[in-house]
Design brief:
By secondary structure, this protein is mostly helical. The chain contains five helices and no strands. 38% of the residues are buried.
Amino acid sequence: MQGNDDHGHDGTGDGVAREDHARTGGWASHVAHLEACAAACRDCARADRHEGMDDCAAMCEACAELCEATARILASEAPLPDHAVRALLAACAAVCRACAAECRKHDAEHCRRCAEACESCAEACEAA
């Protein structure tokens, strides 16, 4: 017989699938992409600020914030329903794509690395 788990789920909802996915390391590759993207965005933002590219820096900082938050959520065992996690990943992919597009406007090496990390992260998020 199915009982309620510690989070009030009865074993039939999305939250349990999400928890099982997290426990089995199913989000580990997504977390790695998100963390790599956030690091590239932070590096790019620092260089952008130094070079006076404030719009690019702001986009990179926003992308880093979202990627870091998303990585923390995926790495936790929060019993979020799958549709909520997928919505978060979709938002992250959209911001990553926007950040990559902004970085592609510039010839700087740090912008190239950031754009590549953002595109890779967006692909991983979209594949979820």
